Amino acid sequence: MSYRLIRKGLRATVRPVTLAAAALLLASAASAQQPAASDSTVTYPAEFFAQYEPFSVNDMLSRIPGITLAMGGGNQGGSGGPGSSGGADRRGLGAGGDQILINGRRIAGKENEGNAQLARIPASQVQYIEIIRGTSGDLDVRGGAQVINIVLLAAETRSSIAAEVNVDRYHDGTLDPGGSVSLNGQRGALNYQFSAAAEPRYEFRDGFETSILANGTPNDIVVRQEYRDSKPITLSTNLGYDLTLNDRVNFNALVSDSDAPMTVDRYITDLRATPNTLTTEYDDIPASSDNWEIGGDYEHTFVNGSRFKTLFIVNEANSESARDAFDVNGANYTKFLYLATQSVTKERIVRSTYSFGLNDTQDLEFGIERAQTILDSQLQLGLPPVPFAPSAQFGGLRPASNTDALVEEIRYESFVVHNWQLNERMSLESTLLFENSTIEQSGDVSNKRDFDFIRPKVDYRFDITPAIQFRASFEKDVAQLSFSDFTASIAGGDDDQNALAGNPSLVQEQSLRYEANLEYRLPNDAGVLSSKVFYHDLTDVIDRVNVSTRTSIQSASGNIGDGKRYGASVDASLRLGFIGVPEMLLTSGVQIEDSSVTDPFLGIDRKLRQGGRGNMRLGFRHDLPALSMNYGFNFAHQFEGDRKAYDIDKIEDYNSGDMLTVFAETIGFAGLTYRFEAMNALEGERCRERSRFVRGTIATGVLNEIETSCSNTGMKLALKIRGTF
After folding, report:
1. Band (86; pLDDT cuts 50, 70, 90)
2. What is the CATH number of domain 3-724?
3. Cα angle at 568 between 565 and 574, to 5 degrees?
């Protein structure tokens, strides 16, 4: 029985029912010691996890077969990709989004949404966990293959403190400590959570690049060392209060500061000179960023079971950085580049829904969302002053570019969702969404455009047996435009290019998305097998286009025409009970994919930008409850080849090394949990081959040089000590 059904039953009782009585009803619904499946929902009571002595909700989820797929991870590439309106940077909330519910409700937040809560909620506060595989008008989210619902204990009074201290060691010998603490509990009708965290994110990236000319002559060697020192500090709170049995309010807030200053040393050996000459360059890049978010919601359930809910979210993010690049000659530093950016992003969201039952098998929901997003950005580029006078605003160099842009989008989404339980084994969810937006840009460029889209979606599910489920969906999706593509921005990853041009004429990338999935849950929670095929028909694909002037060759993001993307994946998550060790959990997956679009420069058919060929992953964990310990690893590999990016004067081919994380965990002194992790244990490199063209584009120019570069951040070791009090 789902949390929603239990809650409806509670609300149908007389008002004098106490919270203690409600807690007894909830406890009786989850008294089983093993996961139970009912109505396409798999329920894991807290007792199921007790033998593993988990610390947080994340630890509990890691013991559930197939949880990576349920959370939208793994090899589920068909769910995102080009033409998708989802993703962490989405503006507004939309009907999908985070597939994590807490006590059956969606957290009114983005930075502070449900998925962010999983590491903060102690396992001792959990009543049970649901994996909801069906569709329902009672759910606060739409469009997810599966929804995870974390149901907390209900009691008159409860509280606990969860704390963690950790230290990371990086491959240059740097030690970086961090920690977090959270207070969780309930007092009467009030549920609360307060947390604070300081996360170490130091990075030392060691890079090496070789370059040869088109005729095969060695050109130069570049040794590059990047140091980034960051430790985001985040404070957050989540409060919920039951005004009555039928009315509930929630409030969420987050504030974060994450400065990330960076320095870069480059040692360039010119192989064309005799003898070879060495040039040293140094970048000093101070960078700061901070953000805050406030959200809240109110929900009322009527006597007939219909629901009204409204929520709001307000957030703001500020960031700025300035790159000072110097030629170094002994103790003398000569600045040759100044590149600074500042940006402020603001978002204000209001969303209201009303849902009701048409009959015993059908539900209907109406809703509207208004989202206002504002980006205010500036970029200053300074170059050596000769023969012009220097400017303090441009780092003591001459002004070469000074851009200013203010972009505002006001978007409305009106939608209706129909849920139909066709019979005991089949369900159909149909969505019709109307999107209207106005994007207005001022500053260096003045432009105002209106957009209207109709976005249908159909989600069909068939429980062939209680263990085997078939899912099929069709959706028209519209990707959101990136505001940074409208304006000039920093060209990351290319020392020979200072900034990228903007394009105020972009239109949204659209896609028709067809997906089918077959899932088999093995008996006795022995594992999950899943397969998926997807096909995406893309319109107005966004990539690089030619915006050259009479004096310079340059490109910007633009629409290059139609394309397609398709592929298939197979995933397996198995307990190894068939060989006598049910405490071992093996997770594996393979995805293959292909794509096609016409290149605007060469006129050839090629893959989408960095489309790739697919990936595979392998995970293993072994729990030893008698010894209060566990260990395991997670491995990821990307198939090599065809991860190319085409630009107006260069072609880049990317390749990433294998990633391996090894962990071991035990409960020891003072009942604390001690966890050791070795991340990037194989020291997988990130590599790129770049072919540069001169005297024209990649179609009209000539090949000048080929750069081959690789870099890696080395292995990171981490020790974490956790406890609940």
Report:
1. low
2. 2.40.170.20
3. 150
